[in-house]
Write a structure and sequence with these properties.
The structure holds two protein chains of two kinds. Chain A is an alpha/beta fold. Chain A is built from 13 helices and eleven strands. In chain A, helix 5 packs antiparallel against helix 6 and helix 6 runs parallel beside helix 13. Chain B is an all-alpha fold. Chain B has 15 helices and no strands. Classes of the chains: A alpha/beta, B mainly alpha. Chains A and B meet through helix 9, helix 10 and helix 11 of A and helix 3 and helix 8 of B.
Chain lengths: 296, 338
């Protein structure tokens, strides 16, 4: 009987020890997970969130696109950080403790990263403010809440509240490079509509992203044609469409439409820069509303 | 006497054919102006044109007319170039797209466009296209010889096409351009969407000169059907003929491709369809192929506006879909001949 008891007590001791060790490990793992110190982000839009929510010391690498100031608000802040191109091998060699990827972009393969045992957070592209807020909260939570997320959300909310109080919604045609437009279900549409415009794409029943014909735009006689700022850094056919001579021609003849240029970095990704885009759009609309009011 | 009558009736048929094709071109050109994604009624269009003002007139002048003019010129250029090359190489498969001339024009244009040269000097764009076209024809001669068998011609064409295609994609990959993937699509499968008056001013004069040069090679090409020696004895300088056709084709194809990308198979389908109607005379085939090419391109460009796809259908996709069956048909025909 005795030896059995001794064995049992030994077993209990061992299992208690094991439990202690593992729980200790667990605590360690949890605290490490709580504030990651080697964050790798692989997508421009994810970068923008990480850069605005985490401390710079926590970030190891962002996508190479974040260094381009036409599309990235944080091109200066990423100096000194490693730039990645979203290759699985490249990311693995960085030994990150957190990888944040965009679920909708093809690179890197989420499956591969998980197989390699990396700690991965995947975000869906935010196509409206509620999705954006979800993403902000998600990222805030994993990078260690610094209160910056709440600030951005309350900033966006206050901008959205501000625009009310004017009934006239001017008709806006959104023209993007490649002759595309942004319809319902896209972030750009959300920004433009939230700023109090009517989106022509909606009237034409054009979906999230589809081609729009220059003829359709002109015949609709919009109040605004909203385009991204064209960059002259390198020539591209996609952008030359925004410079079609028909626009000059109709502007000269004093059709009532106004051209509104929004910097690409302000509306390409959901996040902090959207506040700037909203500001720009709302100001243009209010100015236009006053002008129409004076005419009446 | 009978021979004379036959010649006379051939002559009459030839002029009837030209008249019919010209009529078709006229009808399609007009339709191209009045038909669009947004329907403007003919009444509205006419009143806009007669009143010389209004939004509709702007749309017609700035968007639809340049597109129609370019379709007309590009179609004529591709049709006549196909006919001329086929006459010169005495080979029904010699088509600017198939033998790599269009691909080389695209490469030339891409290099000029993405290095920013065409921003400083807009005329550099067609010059790039034409240089590419001329070099590719010279390379073709070098690779396949001056009287190539069908096999040699196609092999040389495949080689040039592959090389220029790869280099075009490489050039676009190297450009720091976020839209490069889309733009590969444009250069390899052309489109006339959103062309402007500027494009017309760039391409049309070069194409015009090219058309005139090619149209005057008819007698030489007819003589060439009897063999090079006979042609020489008839006073046709072969080198001179070659030089004129290379220059004409380079002007035509190079300028077209530089503003609208590669629209393939027009130079294959049209001469193939019209050859029996002109009694297999390569000289007479030239003008009718020009008119036929314009007809086909105008018709195809009108169709792509109405074939509803969210992303818009590329003109080059439609002509390739039309052309590939012809190509297959030609292969069968050649097999029967063997």
């Amino acid at each position: 009987m005795r030896p059995n008891l001794a064995l049992a007590s030994k077993l209990i001791l061992v299992s208690l020890f094991a439990l202690f060790v593992s729980s200790n490990n667990f605590v360690l793992a949890k605290s490490e997970q709580k504030i990651p110190q080697r964050i790798v982000s692989t997508n421009l839009c994810v970068d923008q969130l990480v850069l605005s929510l985490a401390n710079k010391e926590q970030i190891l690498s962002v996508s190479y696109l974040s260094a381009d100031k036409t599309i990235s608000l944080f091109s200066e802040r990423v100096e000194g950080l490693q730039k990645n191109r979203g290759w699985v091998e490249e990311i693995f060699m960085m030994r990150p403790d957190l990888v944040i990827v965009n679920e909708d972009s093809p690179r890197p393969s989420l499956r591969h990263l998980k197989k390699l045992g990396l700690n991965v957070l995947s975000l869906r592209t935010a196509n409206n403010f509620s999705e954006l807020k979800k993403n902000i909260k998600k990222v805030s939570r994993v990078v260690g809440d610094t209160g910056k997320g709440k600030l951005i959300i309350s900033n966006i909310d206050s901008k959205l509240r501000l625009e009310n109080g004017d009934d006239y919604s001017p008709l806006a045609a959104i023209l993007l490079p490649r002759g595309m437009t942004a319809g319902e279900g896209s972030l750009i549409n959300e920004l433009v509509v939230s700023a109090g415009f009517k989106n022509l794409a909606h009237d034409l029943k054009i979906g999230r992203q589809a081609r729009i014909n220059l003829e359709e735009i002109l015949i609709a006689r919009p109040d605004f044609i909203i385009t991204p700022e064209t960059s002259t850094k390198f020539p591209s056919l996609a952008q030359s469409m925004l410079l079609h001579p028909v626009f000059e021609e109709t502007r000269d003849k004093d059709y009532r439409w106004k051209h509104l240029e929004v910097p690409e970095r302000a509306w390409l990704c959901g996040g902090l820069p959207n506040i700037y885009a909203l500001d720009l759009l709302i100001k243009a609309r209010l100015k236009f509303g006053r002008r129409v009011g004076q005419h009446d | 006497m009978i021979e004379k009558d036959k010649n006379k009736s051939d002559e009459i048929n030839y002029f009837i054919l030209i008249a019919v094709l010209s009529g078709l071109v006229l009808i399609l050109f007009t339709s191209s102006i009045f038909l669009g994604t947004t329907s403007i009624s003919i009444k509205k269009s006419l009143s806009a044109v007669s009143a010389l003002e209004g939004l509709y007139l702007t749309i017609i002048l700035e968007l639809r007319l340049p597109r129609a003019i370019l379709a007309l010129f590009m179609g004529a250029a591709l049709g006549i170039s196909g006919a001329a090359l086929q006459g010169l190489l005495r080979n029904p498969l010699a088509e600017p797209g198939l033998i790599g001339v269009s691909g080389a024009s695209a490469l030339g244009s891409v290099i000029v466009f993405y290095t920013g040269l065409s921003v400083s000097y807009s005329f550099a764009l067609p010059v790039g296209g034409m240089t590419g076209a001329a070099l590719s024809i010279l390379l073709l001669y070098f690779l396949a010889g001056k009287d190539p068998s069908i096999l040699k011609l196609i092999l040389a064409g495949v080689a040039i096409n592959t090389l220029t295609g790869a280099l075009t994609v490489l050039a676009l990959n190297l450009s720091p351009n976020p839209y490069a993937a889309y733009e590969v699509f444009f250069w390899l499968l052309g489109s006339l969407e959103n062309t402007s008056v500027n494009h017309v001013f760039l391409a049309a004069p070069c194409i015009c000169v090219g058309l005139i040069i090619l149209a005057t090679t008819g007698r030489g090409l007819d003589a060439l059907t009897l063999g090079e020696d006979v042609a020489r004895s008839l006073g046709v300088g072969l080198r001179n003929l070659q030089a004129r056709i290379i220059l004409g084709t380079a002007l035509c194809v190079g300028a077209s491709v530089s503003v609208a990308g590669v629209v393939g198979f027009v130079g294959l389908i049209v001469p193939h369809l019209l050859r029996p109607a002109v009694g297999h005379s390569p000289g007479r085939l030239l003008i009718v192929s020009g008119l036929g090419g314009a007809t086909l391109t105008l018709a195809a460009d009108i169709s792509v506006r109405f074939i509803a796809t969210g992303q818009g259908l590329q003109l080059g996709v439609l002509t390739a879909l039309l052309g590939a069956p012809f190509f297959i048909l030609l292969v069968f025909k050649l097999r029967e001949d063997d």
